[in-house]
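COURSE: Structural Biology Practicum
ASSIGNMENT: Worksheet 4, Part C
STUDENT ID: 0417
INSTRUCTIONS: Below are two proteins. For each, the amino acid sequence is given first, followed by its structure token string. Answer the questions at the end about the second protein only.

PROTEIN I
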Amino acid sequence: MALTFRAGDAGWMMLVGAATLVANGTPLSNTMSAGEALNALAYNVIQFGIPAVLLLRLADALVDAGRLPSLPAYMAVVGLTVVGGIWLIAPQLYPLLGKADWWRWEDNFVLAGTTLIWHGLGVAVYAQLRFSRRAQAHLARLQDAAAQRERQLAATQLLALQARMDPALLSERLAAIDDELLNEPLRAQARLAALIELLRALQPHVEAEVSTLAREIAALRAYAQLVSADAQHTERLHLAGLADPPDWPLAPMVLLPLVRPLLDEGTTLWSLSLHGGAGVAELRLRALGPDLTRTLQAAKAVPLAELARRLHAVHGQSAAMVLLVEDMPLFKLTWPVPT
């Protein structure tokens, strides 16, 4: 349980003391000089303002920690403030601030009755505001937890979808390998190794809840090798600075479906690079040419809306995927990463 005080608490102590003084009618029903009014204000601030704020902070901490229900906690604030201020604190102030000659012991009970009413109303309003804030904070936590569960479910579904190898792709590549075995056995073996690496990269870890950038780059590199001429180099995809990518969480079924149709187009060279800031990562996939017309056609054929939806499902609305057409098409994929 943490008892915290705020920068404005001194001002609230002054305000509670002044409000108590005015609410009890002391400066209104008595002809008081400026010095007497200042003395009465000092009494009320020390008697009621300081204890009320300190006890409210204690009650806040106890209620937030679940140690006490809110109703008895805030009722106790009112009772302790009034009783302690009148019968415990005030007598200690007599030698310092003096005591009015006309003040009798019966006046303590009158003061206690009126102060209980005003402080009870004030603390009731304060407790209601605190209850509203706690309810809003609890609702926000529930909404965050629900959103997190939805993102985890989306990532799990995408991982399962990714693990299902496209039958058409598998059949096409196995047929190509079969043809190469007759004339280019070494190339066929390299292409088969690239296919095996792709299949391995697409299989999620048994405890994985989301994919990672390193895993997605491994799958992308294997596919680029698989469709290359010699099955050993990513000749039409330059992976700039991605030899050892970080294990940042990344939605599956986004990066490979983005790059695959661009590589299948067959002529354009592409460069993929990683950029990052504070808590944000960005992948930039830039076309290098040579044929602008065919490259634009391939870029516009990418199912960008569907890939962006998958990205949002896992990383929230702060993630984004856009296509910019400058001299050559440029895809930008941004998503939040752990700091």
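PROTEIN II
(use this one for the questions)
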Amino acid sequence: MSHPATGHSAAYIAELKKRLNSHRKWVIGTRGGVQADLSFYDMSQLPLGGVVLRNAKLVGTSFARSNLSRADLKAAVLMMAELEGADLSQADLLGADLRGACFNGANLAEANLAGADLRTGSLGAVSTRQQPSAGTVVSRRTELMDANLNRAILVGSNLGNCDLTGAELVDADLSGADLTGAILVSTDLSGATLKNTTLTGAVLSGAVLDADAVARMAHLGINPDGNLESLGERLFELLAHHQEWLDSEGRSGQRLELDLADLSDAPLGEVDLSAAKIQRCNLRNANLTGSNLMMADLSYSNLSGADLSGANLSGCGMRRVNLTGGSLRDSVLLSVPVGDLERPWPTNLQYARLNDCDLRCRAAAGVILRHADLTGARVNMALMKGSDTSGARLPTTRG
């Protein structure tokens, strides 16, 4: 019978405990200890706080949503491992091989990742007791989207091409780290130590940076808003295809799907962008007045200074967007009924930066403002009544 909380059988848990105990003996040099090879094992949703897995082979192992707080994972091989939603707070990952691992939504607060390798991982014909050789090469970049790395130690770590979209690295130490080609879109780097950090080719659109960090980058010739593709006249061609897709209800044309594109100052007023996917894009100072963004997804995009006055943002996904100094005056942020869902789909501004933004909308219902920063924003009762503001920084006065 499987454990209701973890889904693992009692026999499986007993086997894992036996192998973990044997590995612990191996680490401390006790007789009878054997180095653990738990590659491709399912160790998800397990209480593993303080576990000793130093130098263990954990290729492709799933620790999704497991508690690994204070775990000893020094020099462990976690290539292509699944750690989504795991708690790794204060864990020791010194010198660990984390290439291609997935840490999306994981808690790595105060973890030690000094000297860790977080580059893109490639897994070839690996043969273990759990995963016979298939001869297929699998490659993926290391993912840390929305991960909590506050106060983490990343000294000398290699984060080349790593995806840190929306991650929090407040007061983290990145001294000597290599972030070449890393994606740092909407990443919070406030208070982070960037001494001798390599940022060549890194994408920093919408990242939170201290004045010292901005000055350091300017000295090195790094533009935080650079390294995004400029669409130029091709944008209007894509918009025409999207309109055709909408008019034909998906039978022809093509849905607008953009990622890491430069749309700064784009003239998008009165344009129908409903159901468009425009993630991680630079929309700084864009004109979106009167546009239709119903059920669109603008997550992680930089909309600082953008004008969305009178726009329809009902059901729009705007997680971790930067709307600093923007305007949503007279906009509509209603929830949208979707199919058989019991609850309508709300406008989502979770973790959004809304500093000094004009949020005096015309109508709103059930807006998600969890953990959003509304410092200096102008709001009205139309927005605030019925909105979920748990964990949000609210303005002291209303407009």
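ANSWER KEY EXCERPT:
Q1: The domain at 1-227 is CATH 2.160.20.80 (Pectate Lyase C-like).
Q2: The chain has two domains: 1-227, 229-399.
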